[in-house]
């Protein structure tokens, strides 16, 4: 029998704990180590998992721990270095979104992994929602005809406390982007998965509500075209009442609606899902096929009101490790992470140029887009 997959978490902050919990619950997987440059964080997380070793440096852990895979859950600007070190050590890397904040670095990771034959994946766990899988299946089976349009909404709430909780959030140098890069990117990836290859993006962004304490976008709108001809719109904002507030004010009638993706086809049919509130499992909210009303009602009953963490991380990590074992590409690759990043950074670049940006970007456009948002945390 094959040995258990030996896995480590790098970055023991909020989502690192979710990764550790998810990985440790999987059969055939051993969480052997956790690593954080602030070693107290790694120690604190390791206490919950007896026998797990603690490291404060990625290179030492890679040399020491005989790993099959790392789960990279560091802050955005610190995804590249641990992932690249893993690839150079022949260790598979599943990297939190966004894959990186720099297109040059994202591309370097993808190329290095392909050359070394090392599995690289990007965390977009929301693709595993049953509501997303059934939309994808319906589109892939041609039930919509050709796709003509999609709308992708990330209508979210954040407040000052959220941006000040982690020193890297809210700035171009620390986070490298805002509502689009950190939040909407999940659904941008989901839309790419359903619609195919994006061919151009034109968008605008602004900082209208949180400008006293952040400089990244808190609102953005974009039009994305796809190889099959479909025209999609994205709207992203973090300007609602904080969707994460533990004690929401009863006076606030309209809290952050959450995420939504709907896709429409030439056959006159539409499919859609909604994640509301944010971090709940998304449910099918649009399914126009005659005779399937009862089915849609049943899905809603079964899937409504469920939390999405850590269950869908567990599903993605399991799928990724299966791919590593089998030597096949994972469901969500490093290249998918690069494509989603190009759509997002294409919005920043198109605003700078007041012109649409062709995708995939040329090397020059990548350089220009990176120059707009560069800076180390
Ligand atoms: N998939 C999701 O739904 C989801 C949800 C939340 C966060 N995330 C992503 O996870 C990442 C982390 O977010 P968070 O909220 O957990 O951040 P966090 O600030 O709570 O944790 C990041 C941790 O990484 C550590 N770290 C930074 N650089 C390091 C390095 N070079 N080596 C080792 N450790 C290092 C920090 O000390 C910190 O403990 C972000 O990129 C974010 O986008 C994804």
Automatic annotation (TrEMBL):
<keyword id="KW-0520">NAD</keyword>
<feature type="domain" description="GFO/IDH/MocA-like oxidoreductase">
    <location>
        <begin position="133"/>
        <end position="268"/>
    </location>
</feature>
<dbReference type="InterPro" id="IPR000683">
    <property type="entry name" value="Gfo/Idh/MocA-like_OxRdtase_N"/>
</dbReference>
<dbReference type="InterPro" id="IPR055170">
    <property type="entry name" value="GFO_IDH_MocA-like_dom"/>
</dbReference>
<dbReference type="InterPro" id="IPR051317">
    <property type="entry name" value="Gfo/Idh/MocA_oxidoreduct"/>
</dbReference>
<feature type="region of interest" description="Disordered">
    <location>
        <begin position="358"/>
        <end position="377"/>
    </location>
</feature>
<protein>
    <submittedName>
        <fullName>Oxidoreductase domain protein</fullName>
    </submittedName>
</protein>
<dbReference type="Pfam" id="PF22725">
    <property type="entry name" value="GFO_IDH_MocA_C3"/>
</dbReference>
<feature type="domain" description="Gfo/Idh/MocA-like oxidoreductase N-terminal">
    <location>
        <begin position="5"/>
        <end position="121"/>
    </location>
</feature>
<dbReference type="InterPro" id="IPR036291">
    <property type="entry name" value="NAD(P)-bd_dom_sf"/>
</dbReference>
<dbReference type="GO" id="GO:0000166">
    <property type="term" value="F:nucleotide binding"/>
</dbReference>
<feature type="compositionally biased region" description="Basic and acidic residues">
    <location>
        <begin position="363"/>
        <end position="377"/>
    </location>
</feature>
<dbReference type="Pfam" id="PF01408">
    <property type="entry name" value="GFO_IDH_MocA"/>
</dbReference>
């Amino acid at each position: 029998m094959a040995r258990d997959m030996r896995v480590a978490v790098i970055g023991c902050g909020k989502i690192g704990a979710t990764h550790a919990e998810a990985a440790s619950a999987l059969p055939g997987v051993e969480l052997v180590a956790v690593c954080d440059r602030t070693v107290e964080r790694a120690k604190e997380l390791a206490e919950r998992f007896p026998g797990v070793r603690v490291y404060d440096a990625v290179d030492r852990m890679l040399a020491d721990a005989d790993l099959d895979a790392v789960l990279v859950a560091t802050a955005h600007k610190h995804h590249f270095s641990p992932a690249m070190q893993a690839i150079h050590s022949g260790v598979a890397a599943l990297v939190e979104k966004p894959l990186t904040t720099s297109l040059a670095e994202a591309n370097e990771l993808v190329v290095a992994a392909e050359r070394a034959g090392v599995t690289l994946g990007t965390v977009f766990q929301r693709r595993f929602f049953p509501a997303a899988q059934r939309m994808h299946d319906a589109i892939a089976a041609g039930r919509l005809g050709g796709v003509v349009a999609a709308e992708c909404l990330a209508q979210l709430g954040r407040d000052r406390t959220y941006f000040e909780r982690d020193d890297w959030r809210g700035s171009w140098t620390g986070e490298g982007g805002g509502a689009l890069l950190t939040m909407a990117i999940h659904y941008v990836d989901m839309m790419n998965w359903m619609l195919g290859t994006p061919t151009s993006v034109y968008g605008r962004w602004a900082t209208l509500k949180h400008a006293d304490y952040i400089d990244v976008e808190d609102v953005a709108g974009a039009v994305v075209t796809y190889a099959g001809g479909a025209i999609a719109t994205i709207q992203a904002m973090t300007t609602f009442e904080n969707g994460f507030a533990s004690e929401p004010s009863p006076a606030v009638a309209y809290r952050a609606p959450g995420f939504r993706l709907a896709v429409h086809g030439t056959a006159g049919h539409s499919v859609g899902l909604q994640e509301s509130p944010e971090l709940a499992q998304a449910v099918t909210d649009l399914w126009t096929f005659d005779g399937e009303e009862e089915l849609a009602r049943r899905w809603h009953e079964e899937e409504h009101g469920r939390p999405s963490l850590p269950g869908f991380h567990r599903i993605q990590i399991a799928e990724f490790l299966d791919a590593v074992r089998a030597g096949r590409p994972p469901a969500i690759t490093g290249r998918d992470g690069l494509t989603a990043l190009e759509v997002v950074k294409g919005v920043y670049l198109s605003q700078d140029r007041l012109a649409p940006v062709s995708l995939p970007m040329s090397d020059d456009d990548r350089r220009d887009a990176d120059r707009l948002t560069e800076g180390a945390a």
